[in-house]
Amino acid sequence: MSPNVTNLNKDQKINMSGTTLLKESGPREVFCGLTSIVWLHRRMPDAFFLVVGSRTCAHLIQSAAGVMIFAEPRFGTAILEEKDLAGLADAHEELNRVVKDLLNRRPEIRTLFLVGSCPSEVIKLDLSRVAQQLTHAYKGRVQVLNYSGSGIETTFTQGEDGALSALVPLMPEENSNNQEQLLIVGTLANAVEDRLKTLFQRLGISNVASLPPRKSSELPSIGPKTKVLLAQPYLSNTARLLKDKGAEIVEAPFPLGVEGSELWMRAAGKAFNINESLLNKVLDPLIARGVKALEPYKEKLSGKKVFLLPESQLEIPLARFLHRECGMQLIEVGTPYLNREMMECELKLLPENTRVVEGQHVEKQLDRVKEENPDLVVCGMGLANPLEAENISTKWSIELVFSPIHGIDQASDLAELFARPLQRNELLDNKISSIN
Amino acid sequence: MELTLWTYEGPPHVGAMRIAASMEGIHYLLHAPQGDTYADLLFTMIERRGQRPPVTYTTFQARDLGGDTAELVKGHISEAVERFNPDALLVGESCTAELIQDQPGSLASGMGLNVPVISLELPAYSKKENWGAAETFYQLIRGLLQEKANDHSGHNPTAWKEQGRKPTVNLLGPSLLGFRCRDDILEIRKLLNENGIDVNVVAPLGATIADLKRIPKSDLNICLYPEVAESVCSWLERNFGMPFSKTVPIGVGATEDFIKEVRELLEMPQQKNESTDKSKLTWYSQSVDSNYLTGKRVFIFGDGTHAIAAARIAQKELGFEVVGLGTYSREMARPTRAAAEKLGLKALISNDYLEVESAIAEAAPELVLGTQMERHIAKRLGIPCAVISTPMHVQDVPARYSPQMGWEGANVIFDTWVHPLMMGLEEHLIGMFRHDFEFTDGHQSHLGHLGGQAHQEVVQPEKQSQDIDDLHDAEQSLPIWTSEGKEALAKIPFFVRGKVRRNTEKYARQAGCRNIDSETLYDAKAHFKA
Ligand code: SF4
Fold first, then answer.
1. How close is the nearest chain A Cα to the Cα of B372, in Å?
2. Ligand 1: which atom is nearest the Cα of residue B36?
3. Do A102 and A206 belong together in one domain?
């Protein structure tokens, strides 16, 4: 197999930890950071996300959410109109008015995130000033914060990085009463979070907190007694801010798959000086069970070729899992953005010469997909059916941020997500030859 | 600034995408940030298209803004033209690019490309999707046909007679992400063929640039979807003298009127009325088991065309009582108001989802005909619902043939509107028999359950139904239901329960009762019947 990468920018080709890191630029096909509101609002039911943007922004969130079953969802858009663009002073006032209406209508809101968009950034609407003023006006009742989810600055999951970064300054400083704590950072499904906490407790780490918390108004404390364990790979800015607050960032791969989750938990154990024998005692049976549960999927996935298009920044840890635990062959691993420092542990685990591509030229990348004819492509919703129509199986990357996939116990569920399209492909007798 | 929770229409450039993606050989260069690429999924997911829409997004980033974004745009234009080699290039911008004023249209025109360039100006901060579709279609037709306008000034819709051929017409307006357009075209083509009329061009759906150029050769334009095609039809009338038909053939009566109008415009002899044989709706509605449809209270909301058509069918062809009529489309406000007035109603013109929801709750209908938004409203209120208009979801793009227009369209409408009501009746029967041992909790119709969408499994509804106590929280100073009153209310079939509850409360307030028991309920019943 000799992958044709002639259309990638060789000048920027760097070899690191055995992988081949490449950069590509051109038209991209990714969501913007606003999209993360879709899961953030569910994690913190006492928070509201108000996008300050255009009809496009409102339409994006609605389309990414896929359905609409909330009477009054905990997110909305303050849509800028022509008259708002004419005079900036008015736009600030208008925003004040919209927020006041909203807060009067929804007294249960404790935290309001004003989320910047491309239009609000371009016209330089000062959301932080509005947030400060409103926090002052609603003192004690509602905390108003701001961050940007704009597509000119952020992709998809980076929106969560922005939201969490906005919460960090509000986290109370540790005091002498605080004990050492483990802080898990990144949205997890509630059930997974509970399970992980139970496991940490078995390891003797009883003081475990989460960011984002389930209640936006109950933020964990932060300071030198906190050790941060990142559950998601896209939180580089949040991690930096937590470090600035004196917390220690525990370096580890991400908790996807049996191996990743094991290394992740062991890293935490080490940071808390948990002795090796207790770690083994707790983890070994879980690992044995996890590996066994993976077997039927490994059988389906082993030797199959997978191509990951850039979208969620989960691509590198997923590739590591799919290769090392499921035996898949990695054709290309795309990522919208690569933070080398954060990904160092992960990159080391990828096989020699894995093609890791940061950025995107969607047309050229799809050319490569067709050329390589992979068995499975991980991609966004806009691209899935067009690839299926060419008889290439796909997995939506957005499903991976919605599903409970973290931790040793979930590894087989994670593998199942990738095995299902392949299995379906085998089940169906007929395939289309041409459509539309 | 307008607070929006859910929006009925996308931004105008999505309308432009609908035109581009509907046609063959067109490419759309959209100056827009990366997040705007979400719009592809509307086509690939809702319509299950197996092709990406023919759109190149420039996906500029914040760091590009300091530099030369114009060069970036030009780079994308030449690359797109080289790669896709289109017959025509649409060039436009989304909301963000509109603010930075790169004028991609004039940039493209200045590049000396070997392809017609149509520059689109779609004001993102004042206009919406359907307007964007209409404007794009109009700019495209004008751009391609303007020069020929003079040659055709002497258009004669009866030329077919002298030339000894069949009359020919164009079907204008069907597009992707429109409601059932694919099937409507087939049905209307069949209908016209039966009348000895040939279809020349269908556009934009499935049309090429060459097809568009053939439009003036036909005798008549059929404005099938005014939201998309009306501006084009009027322009063709003004500049080419081509008349166009204005009746939208949805429902038996409207289909008859449509045939009459088209034959009249073409100066064909009128035919004897035969629609009762052509559509089963007429007979099904007359047959005895449809008696229970009489006076069913129905609330209608959608795009203007489908909502107005639905009101006529509901009232004149099914014997329903229309208790609410409205549209989210400001462009269609005037005809919708007129239609509502005829029904003795005040039209609801709004794109505020919450306003629509409270209007429905207030009207307490037994059936809602709406968009996918109203489907969710109805589900929450426990009212049967059928979807009659965009915006729609993937389940509203059925695999089977299901037009809305013509005779078969009327059949489809009968089935899809009456079916949820029958389910309502079944629900009632289940209610009546629920204490019998055969009936366990598992036996329920789809009503009251959530649909089977993947994400729906993940997301839990916040309020599936409202019980009396919830409503009390919302509206103060209402009389209080005694537990005996609540029990009596619970025995009333759910599909009239809302109406009974409202009437009883209204009565109790008028009569100054503080507490509602079963007697108040019967008093109210007598009062409103009298
Ligand atoms: S890319 Fe920008 S304009 Fe588009 S939806 Fe995202 S924030 Fe809004």
1. 9
2. 4
3. no
Same-domain check for residues A268 and A324: no
d(CA B391, CA B10): 9
ipTM of this predicted structure:
0.93
Range of the domain at A229: 181-281
State which H helix or E strand residue A168 sits in.
none
Please, which residues 328-357 of chain B have a Cβ atom closer than 8 Å to chain A? 354, 357
Report whether CATH 3.40.50.1980 matches the domain B146-268: yes
Query: What residues have CB less than 8 Å from B156, skipping those under 6 apart?
Result: B241
Residue B67: the pLDDT is 82
Instruction: Provide the whole-model pTM.
Output: 0.89
Spatial distance between the Cα atoms of B421 and A249, rounded to a whole number of angstroms: 60
E strand or H helix at A342, and its extent?
helix A340-349
| pLDDT at residue B439 tops 50 | no
- Which pLDDT score is estimated for B158? 87
| Pocket test residue of A60, A147, A153 for ligand 1, highest count of atoms within 8 A of CB | A60
Q: In terms of domains, do A121 and A224 share one?
A: no
User: DSSP string covering B465-501, please?
Assistant: ---HHHHHHHSTTPPEEPHHHHHHHHTS-HHHHHHHH
CA distance B324 to B369: 10
Cβ distance B51 to A386 less than 8 Å, yes or no, reads: yes
Do A120 and A200 fall into the same domain?
Answer: no
The fold adopted by the segment(s) B12-127 is Rossmann fold (3.40.50)
Question: Domain-by-domain residue ranges, chain B?
Answer: 12-127, 146-268, 280-426, 461-529
Element (H, E) at B298: strand B297-302
Show residues of chain A in contact with B65, CB under 8 Å: 122, 152
Q: Which atom of ligand 1 is nearest to the CA of A53?
A: 8
Q: What is the CATH topology of the domain spanning B280-426?
A: Rossmann fold (3.40.50)
Angle CA(B379)–CA(B383)–CA(B385) in degrees, nearest 5? 75
**Pocket, ligand 1, Cβ cutoff 6 A:** A 32, 34, 53-54, 56-57, 60, 117-118, 150-151; B 33, 35-36, 95-96
- The two most distant CA atoms of chain A are separated, in Å, by 69
Tokens of B237: 């009338």
Same topology between domain B146-268 and domain B280-426: yes
Which tens digits make up the pLDDT trace of A130-178? 999 999 999 989 999 999 999 999 999 999 999 999 999 999 999 888 8
Looking at residue A152, the DSSP 8-state letter turns out to be T
| Domain B461-529, CATH number (from 3.50.30.10, 3.30.365.10, 1.10.8.550, 3.20.20.150) | 1.10.8.550
Helix (H, G, I), strand (E, B) or coil at B88: strand
- Pairing type for strands B348-349 and B321-327 reads parallel
Residues A12 and A31: their CA atoms lie apart, in Å, by 25
Nearest to B51 by CA among B87, B85, B25: B25
- Dump pLDDT digits (tens) for B352-401: 988 999 999 999 999 999 999 999 999 888 899 999 999 999 889 999 99
pLDDT at A238 over 50: yes
Q: How many domains does chain A contain in total?
A: 3
Greatest CA separation for chain B: 83
Q: Tell if the CB–CB gap between A382 and B37 is shorter than 8 Å.
A: yes
CATH code: domain of residue A47: 3.40.50.1980
Q: Nearest Cα to B372, choosing from B311, B301, B443, B433?
A: B301
Which has the closest alpha carbon to B225: B134, B338, B330?
A: B134
Shared domain check, A187 and A103: no
